[in-house]
Amino acid sequence: MRQGDAAQGFGRPRRVRPLVLGLLALLVLALLPGLFQVADFAERLEAGKRAEPSLSAFYTVPNSLPAGSPGEIVRSERVVGAPPGAEAWRVLYHSSDEQGADTIVSGTVVAPTANTTGERTVVSWAHPTTGTAPRCAPSIGIAPFFFIEGLTRFLSAGYVVVATDYAGMGLPGPPSFLLGNTEAANVLDIARAAQQIPGARASNDVLLWGHSQGGHAALFAAHNAAFYAPDIDVLGVAVAAPATDLGALLTADIVGVSGITIGAYALTAYASAYADALPPDPLSTILTPNGVAATSRMSELCLLGQNDQLHAIAKPLIGRYLAVEPATSPPWDGLLAQNKPSSAALTVPLFVAQGESDTLVRPHITAAYVRAQELAGTDVTSHTYPRVGHGTVALEALDDLFVWINQLGMSGGSTSSG
């Protein structure tokens, strides 16, 4: 569950320290094959820094905003520093939460500038974990495109790429972290939103693509699309190190600082989303007193920029965080099971990538999900990658992903000579 940069306080543009900028530069060098040229990135980073002071107004919406149809755009604006050969928009759009209530979600739409004939296929990207607080949203940052894995390859192939922030991020709203129905709605509705931007020329053909938390979101979107968004034609779903068996993953990961961090994000989200199904003071039923106090603090912090703070809080809690196992303690066990991607057959082809050295999304848990899908009759293509961990598996998988896409006959758009 990938780390994103952080800032101080919602409602203000995020301020990124020189150390974080240096880390981004190093990441560009390390991840260059899947991203873009260093010079281009540095130029766009500077453009993003110049634009930051104007962002807070975009993420402010009136409390009396009327309800809208799922995917209906509330506000959009062009984003500076788009990748070469592309243009981009920041959007606020209507979506729905776990209970089906209308909510406003933020995200990004990126489209090629090359002339094409007809409409373009959409890739709906579901991002890995960056945090859960509003200021942790990828679209707010000075480099909103950086962590969209495979972005330049999809743009070069003519696809429109859309990237939701998920509900509760970007601007206040209901929680979404590892809440399958909320994530699914957010991922599908931003594809609908892209169709309202004339310059994007987005069609209703959609490929779902997600990493880690985003893999969880993409799988739920694939299962829910037929009844939630029948106007969307999902062509396939691709996931890298997806969060599938949430109970098993929580039990396996809670022994380290990363697992405690992810646990804090998830348990806080569930305590809010399912308040009616839980007892009063729900976190105290499964966490130690120190765990309860730490969870409220950790849920307000973003990954990467505030990673040191997260580790400082989590490290003393190793072995002292849980009072009982949520995966085996009602009603928490039922809520985790409710948000486990279904093992029922998908009606579209499935691509799964998993690093064999992943210590966060465990390979044997992903393998069990793949086997279940194969037994159910889903058309599954699965790849594992030796000596690849959690953070880079989506990039490692890009070559195999595009082979799979081409075999399925998908295409972004036809280039026009005009």
TrEMBL record:
<dbReference type="InterPro" id="IPR005152">
    <property type="entry name" value="Lipase_secreted"/>
</dbReference>
<dbReference type="InterPro" id="IPR029058">
    <property type="entry name" value="AB_hydrolase_fold"/>
</dbReference>
<dbReference type="GO" id="GO:0004806">
    <property type="term" value="F:triacylglycerol lipase activity"/>
</dbReference>
<dbReference type="GO" id="GO:0016042">
    <property type="term" value="P:lipid catabolic process"/>
</dbReference>
<keyword id="KW-0378">Hydrolase</keyword>
<protein>
    <submittedName>
        <fullName>Alpha/beta fold hydrolase</fullName>
    </submittedName>
</protein>
<dbReference type="Pfam" id="PF03583">
    <property type="entry name" value="LIP"/>
</dbReference>
